[in-house]
Amino acid sequence: MRKLAIPQIVAVLALVVAGGADWRQFRGTDNTSCSDEAGLPTEFSAEKNVAWKADLPGRGASSPIVVGDRVFVTASSGAEQDRLHVLAFSAADGSRLWHRQLWATGHTQCNPFGAVAVNTPASDGQCVVALFSSNDIACFDLGGNLEWFRGLASDYPATRNDVGMASSPLIVGQVVVVQCQNQGESFAAGLDLKTGLTRWRIDRERDAIWSSPTVLRGPSPSGDVVLLHSRDALTGHDPQSGAVLFKYKAPCHTVASVTTRGNRIYLPAEGVCALQYDPVSRGVEQLWFQRSLRGNNSSPVACGDYVYQVRGPAILSCAGAVDGRKLWDVRLEGAVWATPVVAGGHVYVANHEGQVFVVRTGKKGELLSTCQADRGMLASPAVAGKALYLRSHGQLWKIAAK
Amino acid sequence: MNTLTRIAFAAVLAALAGRACAADLVKSLEILRAVGPQGAGNEAATAAWQEVARSDAAELPKLLSALDGANPLAANWIRTAIDAICERTLREGRSLPQTSLEQFVLETAHAPKGRRLAYEWLLQVDAKAEERIVPQFLHDPSLELRRDAVARLIAQAESAGKPAETADLLKKALDAARDRDQVDTIAKSLKKLDIQADLVRHDGLVVDWWVIGPFDNTGGKGFSTEYAPEKGFDPQAEHQGKHGPVRWRRFSSDSPNGQVDLNKALADGMEKEKEREIVGYAAAEFHSPEARFVHIRTASDNALKIWVNGKLVDKHEIYHGGTVFDQYRAAAILQPGRNVILVKACQNAQTQDWAEVLSFQFRVCDEIGTAILSQKKPGG
Fold first, then answer.
1. Do A102 and B76 lie within an 8 Å CB cutoff?
2. From A4-13, A84-93, A200-209, B105-114, the region with the lowest mean pLDDT
3. Residues B349 and B225 in one domain
4. Does a structural domain hold residue B374?
5. CA A313 to chain centre
6. Which side of chain A, N or C, has fewer Cβ within a 10 Å radius?
């Protein structure tokens, strides 16, 4: 890695200090979809609380991520969706700071509803790793300098899914974990964050899975566990080696991802199954199972005392995090694909039509407002710096109180 | 030192520095071009990328030329550096070398992707370039440049007043179009004028086949089982199928998109309609006037294997994962005269209605999708 000049070191330190407010990967830095931010607007419209909008050069179902004062997003364009874009915007004013493009080296066929930019990028606070459905993966520093690039399709040409490979990368320490699980050559791998070289690779079942790897934070970084699931089991892995630490058999969802909160794991499995992870024995045991939280394609969210899951096309359900007892449903509209986010006692749910529902949470749920953003919203929102970031196929929006 | 001497000395130093910089740039580009699979060369490339990205915009033609023949991984290292240079130059309020960019775009010997990249940066500093040069791209080897020219013709057709003029423009556009969405748009517009576009011919879809089957695919084992048709094509031969002896028979697809429906073609040999867990074979004779590289492009919701003259050129053990035109692309070599193409399509045990399909679409084309037709019809 290149040497940093003093101003760059200061900038990096500032970003590290600001890290608590970052939203660094899919469903947040710890994949929880839960933010400590307070003061987000509970309503917005064209005239109110839309800080800025920025046009995007292509489609995307990938979520934005926020690192310090920068927002990063990916997009894909072209007749065959083979133009891959990585963009950085100023969080302050939405100006485009840099834009890099790549040519896809792997398969770009995907559901026309979606995009090749379907995987959310990830950051460790110093670089941004962008993975695409074509199995192309690139790492840029925050200034847009290319650190490394891999075309995983050139290494594993039979790895493909013709409706798209949606799993997002996960950064744990100095390892980038990718789950390329499909009917062809199926694997998970840990790539070195600094070089992109493969540290480990393990075979996975030959079955189409769109879920993303999730981190369960240990008491120290050496205790972190990577969670992967197949159609029939959840497995915990050592991020350094990929070694299996535990296996829990369950009929898992193939699209939604696992969520954690502390040592609890919330597994989408024909309902939500809550597991307790024991960092000493490195095993899990079931706490409860709530069938009525059987969700659509979005992932469960665990925040504070509650667990949330979008069911059917658009019903937000809530249960107690400790006992799984069902508490309430709030009926929404349209078709929801994106995983909701929770911040400041409110759940934000975006549907495909670009409506954003703000639901006050607690022992009862209440729909506070329905706001209209851009249509074509498949991405889960990001939360950072008292702002909500929304991404549609065509635009990136910052929602913040003025 | 007098002033003249100083100037001369400075010029020599500048020339030497320039040579040193040029040498560094060439070396850095060599490092980027050397990256390979499994991240090979990545560590050296990181530093080389910084060196390349620091280049002045005047070096763009040299950098763009480095894309010629670069492997797809290396091409991405180089293009991101070019993007960084252009972005920085424009941000500093300077311009890009318009003349050399345009010259690069128009030289079709350069890599299509590099030319497109040059074109897009040219448009950033010369908005009129589009109007001036796009019409020249109608039969360009760069699909992206060609697409713009085809789009222009489609737009002209839409605004043309007379049906004959519209039809003429659409036919020209269809002749040049290679992207599926544009081909479909043009065919739809022609249909409104009561003109049926022959897309089977336009795309080079192979619709005349010999078929045989069904063979057994219980438990998915048929995909890797070498049944008799794989050992050589003899249209007179009889083989043991899943339910008894089976023979080759002719089958021609009448589907407008060239779909070869094996549920229909092999129905007589099935125990029940749209039987699951079976294998079907289709063979075609393809006549080429010369030895040449071709693209074999297929689409299927079933597991597939494809042989050309007995050589396996493509295989995909994927069932019902979704399909689109040109889903699979493989390179093959045709020999002069008769070539035998063999397709093996496998059906699995899935019982859903949407998993009943057993079919494929097959075409022969060049690397940009231009149809290559057999020089002789079957039996001709």
1. yes
2. A4-13
3. yes
4. no
5. 20
6. C
Nearest-Cα distance to chain A for B258, in Å, is: 20
pLDDT of residue A161: 87
Nearest-CA distance B187 → chain A (Å): 17
How much is the mean pLDDT over chain B? 94
Domain tally for chain B?
3
Determine whether the interchain pair A183/B318 forms a contact, defined as Cβ–Cβ distance below 8 Å. Answer: yes
> Which residues on chain B place their C-beta less than 8 Å from a C-beta of chain A?
35, 37-39, 42-43, 45-47, 49-50, 53, 72-73, 75-77, 79-81, 83-84, 87, 113, 143-144, 147, 179-182, 316-319, 321-324, 327
Contact A138 B179 (CB under 8 A): no
Q: At what angle do helices B143-159 and B180-192 cross, to 10 degrees?
A: 20
List CB contacts (< 8 A) between A109 and chain B.
322, 324, 327
Question: A10: pLDDT confidence band, cut at 50, 70 and 90?
Answer: very low
pLDDT at A106: 94
Cross-chain CB nearest to A103 (options B39, B76, B318): B76
- pLDDT score recorded for residue B3: 52
Q: How far apart are CA B13 and CA A400, in angstroms?
A: 55
Residue B380 located in a structural domain: no
Percent of chain B exceeding pLDDT 90 equals 91
Range of the domain at B45: 3-127
- Burial class from Cβ neighbours inside 10 Å (0-12, 13-18, 19+) for residue A258 reads buried
Same domain, B34 and B179: no
Task: Out of B42, B77, B327, name the one closest to residue A195 (CB).
Answer: B42
Task: Write out chain A residues lying below 8 Å of B87, CB-based.
Answer: 98-99, 144
Same domain, B213 and B353: yes
Separation in Å, CA of A125 to nearest CA in chain B: 19
| CATH code for position B344 | 2.60.120.260
Same domain, B291 and B306: yes
Span B319-373, pLDDT tens digits: 998 899 999 999 999 999 999 999 999 999 999 999 999 999 999 999 999 999 9
Nearest to B119 by CA among B93, B90, B96: B96
Record: contact B37-A155, CB cut-off 8 A: yes
- Residue A21: predicted pLDDT: 84
pLDDT at B7 over 70: no
Are residues B210 and B312 located together in one domain of the fold?
yes
In a domain, B320, yes or no: yes
Q: At what angle do helices B112-125 and B72-91 cross, to 10 degrees?
A: 10
pLDDT at residue A113, as a whole number: 87
What is the spatial distance between Cα B298 and Cα B318, in angstroms, rounded to a whole number?
13
Q: Which domains does chain A have, with CATH numbers?
A: 6-400 (2.130.10.10)
- What residue has token string 């020089």? B375
Nearest to A348 by CA among A361, A338, A359: A359
CB contact under 8 A, A79 and B182: yes
CB contact under 8 A, B77 and A103: no
Domain assignment of residue B376, yes or no: no
What ranges in B238-302 are assigned the alpha helix state H?
262-265
For the record, the structure tokens of A156 come out as: 């594993």
